[in-house]
Amino acid sequence: MDELPFIPNEYKFKLIDDTGVKKQFETIKKLININNVDIIVNCGDADREGEVIIRITIESFLENKKDMLPEQTNETIRNELKNIRNNNEYELLYDEGFVKTCVDWIHGINLTRLLTCKV
Question: Do residues 14 and 59 lie in contact, with contact meaning Cβ atoms separated by under 8 Å?
């Protein structure tokens, strides 16, 4: 109880232990690290969680320094490839999603520890 609330100094993410996920990640890694690939089109889910997953995958895991352009659904992929917007327009959506991810984790870990100590 003396250690509650628990709030980490930094958040670290890792791939889940799933063969399919690891294979997909390696495919993405190989493709975006090709020298003549200058731009990555974000086709993740069009919401804050989707934005966080794409950013963490590309920016953290792959340490990619290429431009990333967001386009998320089948319809927008076809329509918006003609008029791609810069990923910077989605910075607030990412920030909102990342904060929600951290707050959800903080609530979950602290409530679990509290209930464990009380029971």
Answer: no
User: What DSSP assignment string belongs to 55-112?
Assistant: HIIIIIIS---SEEEE--SHHHHHHHGGGPPPGGGGHHHHHHHHHHHHHHHHHHHHHH
List per-residue pLDDT tens for the chain, 119 residues long: 888 888 989 988 888 999 999 999 899 888 888 888 887 877 777 788 888 888 888 877 776 667 776 666 777 677 777 777 777 888 888 899 999 999 999 999 899 999 998 88
- Residue of 67, 65, 68 lying closest to 53 (CA atoms): 68
Q: Which residues pair with 70 in a beta bridge?
A: 42
Q: Angle, to 10 degrees, between the axis of helix 91-118 and the axis of helix 48-55?
A: 90
